[in-house]
Amino acid sequence: QLQFVESGGGLVQPGGSLTLSCVVSRGALGNYAIGWFRQAPGKEREGVACINRSGGSTNYADSVMGRFTISRDDAKNTVYLQMSALEPEDTAAYYCAASLFSTVPDCYNSNLYTYWGQGTQVTISS
Q: How crowded is residue 102: how many other Cβ atoms within 10 Å of its Cβ?
């Protein structure tokens, strides 16, 4: 079983940057592909980025392409989501999730992920 602790959320002005971290507190990150999802109040959860088990393949939602970067450091049991040029529309609770697939066939299908973190809030506001 895998357990995560997410951190790095906060209040940032539009145009600002944040880096979210997802640290594995129990288990080994290297056995899983990872996705980052977000959910804004009143909206459905949406996938924003994913990375395969080896770290050699990443995928981004159109809404964050060119602004967000997902990466992993298996030695530190940590996955990162670097976010820049943040917009008010990026306001949401952000979650990391782990999949038993080496490469998730449908990166943004939350049903393909087995383990979820508790989330960290990101608020973009002036």
A: 12
Per-residue HEC secondary structure of 58-95 comes to: EEECCCCCCCEEEEEEHHHCEEEEEECCCCHHHCEEEE
Mean pLDDT of the chain: 95
Assigned token pair, 113: 């992920």
pLDDT at 1 over 90: no
Q: Which residues have CB under 8 Å from 102's CB, separation 6+? A: 33, 52, 53, 54
SS3 label, residue 110? helix
Distance CA 2, CA 12 (A): 30
List Cα–Cα distances, 101 to 20, 78, 85, 93, in angstroms.
23, 18, 31, 24
